[in-house]
Every structure is written in structure tokens, then in C-alpha cells.
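Reply to dn_fold:

You asked what the input looked like. This is it:
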Amino acid sequence: MTNRKELDPEKSPSAAFGLLLRRLRDEKGWTQDELAEHTGCSGTHISAVETGRRPPTRRFAANADKAMGSGDRLQRQSQAVRHTALIEGFPEYLKHEARAVEIRLYEVGVIPGLLQIPEYASALTARTVERGAITPEQGEERVSLVAARQAALERTPAPLVFVVLDESCLRRPVGGPEVMERQLERLIGFAALPNTMLQVAPFAIGDRRPLSLPVTIPTMPDRSLMSYAESSHRGHLERESAFVLPLLTSYHQLQAESLSQAESVAMISQLRKGTL
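and this is what came back:
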């Protein structure tokens, strides 16, 4: 007990989770090894999580809650830790995305998360892990988040989703030929849904392109508008209509300049077959 490391919950989300885990374990009167037996891991793993040296996964938090009868306290606390793998501002946007009745998005360079297949998401995340930007555990959570966001769109009534993809999204290889083929097939399936619209902004638009950077414009149940855009380090959620409305106008202009949905699906089909 004399060698027990003091934890400061204000230092980081990982430290706050570790302190809660330790308190719950102490209340049970368990050692780290005893908790490990109940959660299917090692005492070393418990120690690393408690001291913030290893982030908790969703599965670990759920197993620990079940073992100690703590409801979902650890799972809720672990969400803050997982969000450290996300760009600043994005977790706040996700709360609004889950309630939006309409979503308009424009993406450049990569297929957006709402349309990614698991293999595509995993390939992108693997490169981020290799660069050391996030841990493998945080990478797993990122991939899980993609699936959770897509599942949220299946609510009733489903939101209307308008997507404009820069042609670069389709031509950038991610995960190898087989992954790209399945990803392009997924886009074709998305376009066929009754609540979606998919268009491609071809390179030929040139200087007529009214938007150069990715943007998302959700419409909320009260018909209020927001916009979300990212820099390299953080995301910005804009609620002031004076700033959102010009973006909406630009988005509509982009749609007018882009290929129709039928033309877009035809392009994607040709790329999938390797004939374009």
C-alpha cells in the first residue's frame, strides 16, 4: 500500500478512469489480481489501466462494471478516454449528428465515416496507429465508432442524408484493391436507399467548385442549422445562422455543379470494374 501511486483525476481522462476503477475495486476489497480474474485479463493490465499507462477499451470497462456490479459507471467514464483519440470538437458534433433530421456532407480525399466499410475504416486507422498518433486500443475504438455512427442512421424515422464526394475520395486507394472494390460497392448500395442522395464532384469542375474543404451541415429537429468543419488539429461546430447559411448556399451550388446521382453511380461502377 505504501507504494501505491497517487492519481490526479484532473490530469487526464485516463487518470480519472483509473481512480474510479481503483475506488470500486477497493470497495469490493479486491486486489488487482482478483479483479483480473473476474475480467479475464492480468493483474499487470489492471495496474496499467489504474495508473493511466493503458487506456480502457469498451469491452474492458463493460467487463469491469459487470464484475463489480457498478452498473455502467466505468463504461460512461471510459467514453471520455476514448474521445481522446478523436479530434477536439468531434465528440460534441456526434451528439447532434445522432439527432439530426437531415445531414449534408462534402468530403475530400477519403470516404467519410458514415459510408465506410469496416475494412476501409480499419486500414485508415492502422496507418494512424503505425504513425504513433493513437494507441492500438484507441484505434479499435475508432473503428467501433464508425459502426456506431452508421447504426444511429438506421433510426426511425431515418434522417435524409445528402453526400457529395470529391472525385479524389474514389480514386485514393485504401486497404488494397479488394477493399476498394467492396467500398465502392457500398457507395452504390448507399445511393439506392430511399433517404439518401449521393453525388460526385468531378475534377472537371475546376475553379467552379464553391467549396474546397470538407464540411457537414446537420439540420436539427427544430429545423435549426449547424455546420461542422475540421482543421488539422480541431473541429469547429458553428451554430450561428449568419455563418451557416452561406455554407448551405455553397453546398447547393456544389450539388448543381456535381454529377447527378445516376451519373455518379455510373462513374463509381466503372471505377469498381476498372474500366475508368
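The chain has two domains: 13-84, 87-273.
Hope that clears it up.
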